[in-house]
Amino acid sequence: MRRHRKIWRGAALVTVAIVASACGSSSGTNEAATTTTAGANGSTTTTAEAATTSTTAGAQPQSLSDWENLWTQQRAAIVKRIKDNKWGKSADGKTATGPEGWTVDLTKCASGWSDTEGVTDTTIKIGQALAMSGTYADYANLGRAVSFLFDYYNEQGLFKDASGKVRKVAYTMKDDGYDAARTIPIVDELLDSEKVFAIWTLGTPSTLKTYDKINQRCVPQPMAM
To answer: What is the C-alpha to C-alpha distance for residues 165 and 122, in angstroms, rounded to an integer?
Structure first.
């Protein structure tokens, strides 16, 4: 169930990315709160008094339906936060903003760049480079699980953007054998031929070898595994 939740959060990022598509990174600070109350997965209340913090955790959801209800609530809260803070692309299309003053200068994106590349009226294309062979071939099972969940929720019309448009995720994974030298041409293919909306990579070596190029192309990389 824990792995399922992690995979789902990756899927949920797709819909959030559609609401506020952004690329690259900038400086920012973490947001702190002295009091926090969680919802359906039990109550988590943190209070600060005389340098003392107490936390009480309740029971986690016990069924897939309970988890889905929780994820729905969490996504709604994220979307509301995006809208309330007016994050996303500026009216002149030159800047993208996010939490805590995080900004992206979109004028530095490559010529011909589009924040809707890989997105049609019906589809969102996501590309993945991960090990499907070699020592770390078991990671392919993670990709198969992601693919299964995307297909499962595609059929339920889950992936809906802020305007109500429903799309299906077209998820493509390619084998790099956990070899950064093989990841580079895969990322090139995903960028130039597949023209995906977002790219995922697996592992520190492969990610470090490709993230500069992905950022320069202003393509979102919402979850590096």
So the answer is: 8
